[in-house]
Write a structure and sequence with these properties.
The protein has no helices and 5 strands. By secondary structure, the protein is mostly beta strands. The protein has a single domain, classed as Nucleic acid-binding proteins (OB fold (Dihydrolipoamide Acetyltransferase, E2P), Beta Barrel). The N and C termini lie far apart (about 50 Å).
Length: about 90
């Protein structure tokens, strides 16, 4: 049996918006996209519910997250590391 190497998970960087319970934080993922017709840059954001096993992240922290298996109805991300603490 040959083992296949898995790619490392893609990391996303965001800011913790709120601590929404035990081992869960909400992270804002901000990005820019172009309007399809006019070409103007538009600010968009995605709110991700993130599993924080050690309760390390606080509001305002910059964090790296990655996708994982579903942990609940809305939570399918996990915290990789805290980049910058506030």
């Amino acid at each position: 049996m040959t083992e296949t190497k898995r790619k490392p998970p893609k990391l996303y960087r965001g800011v913790v918006a709120s601590k929404s319970g035990d081992k869960t934080v909400k992270v804002l993922l901000n990005y820019l996209t172009r309007h399809p017709k006019y070409g103007k840059l538009l600010k968009r954001r995605t709110v991700a519910h993130v599993h924080d096993d050690a309760n390390k992240a606080r509001e305002g922290d910059t964090v790296d997250i990655c996708k994982c298996r579903k942990m609940s109805k809305t939570k399918s991300w996990r915290l990789v590391r805290v980049i910058e603490e506030v």
